[in-house]
Design brief:
Elements (H helix, E strand, L loop, with lengths): L2 H18 L5 H8 L8 H11 L4 E6 L3 E6 L13 H6 L5 H5 L31 E3 L4 E5 L3 E4 L12 E6 L7 H12 L14 E6 L2 E15 L2 E12 L2 E13 L5 E8 L13 E2 L1 E2 L9 E3 L16 H27 L20 E5 L2 E5 L4 H24 L11 H12 L1
Parallel strand pairs: 1-7
Antiparallel strand pairs: 1-2, 2-6, 3-4, 3-6, 4-5, 7-8, 8-9, 9-10, 10-11, 11-14, 12-13, 15-16
């Protein structure tokens, strides 16, 4: 670490703090800190940051007066020249300390990465006034929202190859009891926190006499040309009670190397089962898709990270290629079922795929206009997949020796036949 850059950063961020503390800027800080409608959403942000550093595990230790977050990421904190932050950000070499002491000046350089220390980290200031950061390269705390102060001693709970964050509950408005309640509830109810992360495989947490854990395990995988198919087990342990969910996840990379995926859940008998979940952008948003399987892509989100920006060219493209992947996944599921001597495509598929268009007419004064969901391409492309492969899907399940089921025509088969005749 360059001590000269750090000293220059202290001076620069002190100026920023003085500006933010002016009466005319009073609302800026609260708009950044309170951007999420859900309490303790910053837990997701911390996990994002850990995954960006290559961490394979992360753990939370919640006390009644503070939160400790630890991970084993290999990327270390760096400091860059505060006078060249604009060009450093564009060139991907902005220091992590610089980024964490900024608003919207993260080390993220494109929309296909989660980004390290963007605005999302600022949500920790809902519960603390002085975050502490202990890294193998540097130890410092943050005061006045922006100003770094070096710390001499290390943290007793940090191993040599770990990075540790400590957040004392010393917020002027939200007291320690409020913080403990909100964070303990969040840690106990994370939704698929590592399903779409690249490196993290295990998350653990503990508070009082409670311990919990989230794990991801890839059981089996196939390669279909440019598509990776993975059978994934997601497990959640809480107070010695364990829950497991399995799904087939199909993933591809777009032209900017961003991974996008569709996933189909399995029930206890390993049959496809419908789910109602919002769209994912690494973590769940609040964007209802109307689909009964899950989708993930590096969408451009609204500032609160709760919704997908509608009308954006990038997002329109993401939905289009996701729909194509979902359609192709029907054939992949068929082939996986044949290979494993297990019928995956059956009547249940009608509960999962969209079987009707979202297009509808609405009255607007004296005129009528057509409205449709931004997820309409899923219906169109999956319908095309049935039209192109429907007869083969029907015959392969009746005639293939591994999946011989007799000649009984099911609702699914009748649906395919009628669709082929009508379209």
């Amino acid at each position: 670490m360059s001590i000269n850059y750090f000293e220059a950063l202290v001076k620069d961020r002190t100026d920023s703090a003085e500006t933010l503390e002016k009466p005319s800027m009073r609302g800026v800080k609260s708009s950044v800190v309170d951007k999420y409608s859900e309490q303790a959403h910053f837990v997701y942000e911390l996990l994002q940051n850990a995954d960006d550093t290559g961490a394979t595990y992360a753990r939370f230790k919640l006390y009644h007066d503070r939160l400790v977050f630890i991970h084993n990421g290999t990327r270390r904190f760096s400091v860059s020249n505060p006078e060249t932050e604009d060009s450093d950000r564009e060139n991907g070499c902005l220091g992590d300390v610089n980024a964490i002491l900024s608003i919207g000046n993260s080390t993220k350089t494109d929309q296909n990465t989660i980004g390290k220390f963007g605005v999302g980290f600022k949500a920790v200031f809902q519960y603390t006034s002085t975050p502490y950061i202990y890294d193998p390269n540097i130890r410092f705390k943050i005061e006045r929202f922006f100003v770094p102060v070096l710390i001499e001693s290390d943290h007793s709970e940090r191993a040599a190859d770990e990075t540790l964050f400590e957040f004392p509950f010393n917020h002027e408005m939200n007291d320690a009891d409020i913080a403990f309640e909100a964070i303990s509830e969040r840690l106990s109810s994370l939704v698929n926190p590592i399903l779409f992360l690249s490196h993290l495989k295990e998350i653990s947490f503990e508070f009082d006499d409670t311990k919990g854990e989230y794990r991801k395990n890839i059981v089996k995988s196939y390669d279909f040309e440019n598509t990776k198919a993975e059978l994934i087990t997601l497990s959640q342990t809480f107070d010695e009670k364990s829950e497991k969910r399995k799904l087939w996840l199909f993933s591809r990379f777009d032209e900017s190397s961003g991974q996008y995926s569709v996933g189909f859940y399995l029930d206890e008998e390993d049959k496809l089962t419908p789910v109602d979940e919002c769209a994912y952008c690494f973590f769940p948003t609040k964007e209802n898709t109307g689909l009964h399987f899950i989708i993930h892509a590096p969408f451009l989100l609204t500032d609160s990270r709760e919704g997908i920006k509608q009308g954006d060219t990038h997002n329109t493209k993401m939905i289009d290629i996701l729909a194509g992947l979902a359609a192709d996944s029907l054939v992949y599921l068929r082939d996986i079922g044949i290979d494993s001597n297990q019928r995956l495509i059956d009547d249940n598929i009608l509960k999962i795929v969209p079987t009707s268009s979202s297009k509808h007419l609405v009255w607007n004064g004296f005129t009528r206009s057509s409205q449709q969901s931004q997820f309409e391409p899923f219906y169109e492309k999956m319908l095309d997949a049935f039209k192109m492969n429907g007869l083969y899907l029907l015959l392969i399940h009746i005639l293939h020796p591994k999946t011989l089921i007799g000649h009984t025509i099911s609702r699914f088969h009748l649906y395919l036949i009628m669709m082929l005749l009508n379209h």
